[in-house]
Design a protein that fits this description.
- The protein is mainly beta and 142 residues long.
- It has one domain.
- The chain is built from no helices and 10 strands.
- It has a 4-stranded antiparallel β-sheet, with no helix packed on it. A 4-stranded antiparallel β-sheet has the order 7-8-9-10, with no helix packed on it. The protein has a two-stranded antiparallel sheet with strand order 1-2.
- The mean pLDDT is 89.
């Protein structure tokens, strides 16, 4: 839950194998208020007032911006990208739009969910945000 003051509260599995049935506040890594939140199947992403996008929890497909061969569980919000104005979580992929209206995707692209050809996910590194192959013009929502 995101409050009108930019505070983020979560409950349930707040980090891998740590369950809470009462709200717990998530601290902003840089101290600025959060402005948006979305969840995929097993991960959460948040955007703060400085345009920094963070993600954490399950990272099986690199949707949290980390090589899944190195880390499949992210315990705290981890910076994915900056200069972001909007984003959306899919099942196991993350889409974002930067301040220049460029669309990027990362994570599972098995069915082209990230908006580019199946064989073009940053040369086999799906945890690195990859620019879409298409020019969408000015993006209103994602």
């Amino acid at each position: 839950m995101l409050s009108d003051q930019g505070k983020l509260y979560i409950w349930g599995e707040i980090e891998p194998d740590n369950f809470k049935n009462t709200p717990v506040e998530v601290e902003s890594p840089d101290g600025s208020p959060f402005t948006a939140i979305d969840c995929g199947m097993l991960y959460t992403a948040v955007l703060n007032a400085n345009g920094i996008l963070y993600a954490w929890m399950n990272n099986d497909y690199g949707q949290c911006g980390v090589d899944p061969g190195e880390k499949t569980e992210i315990k705290k919000p981890l910076k994915v990208s900056s200069d972001i104005k909007m984003f959306s979580c899919g099942l196991s992929h993350l889409m974002m739009v930067n301040t220049m209206d460029t669309v990027f995707g990362l994570g599972c692209n098995d069915d082209g969910n990230c908006g580019f050809a199946l064989d073009n996910i940053n040369k086999g590194k799906p945890w690195i945000p990859t620019q879409s192959e298409y020019d969408y013009g000015k993006v209103k929502d994602i």
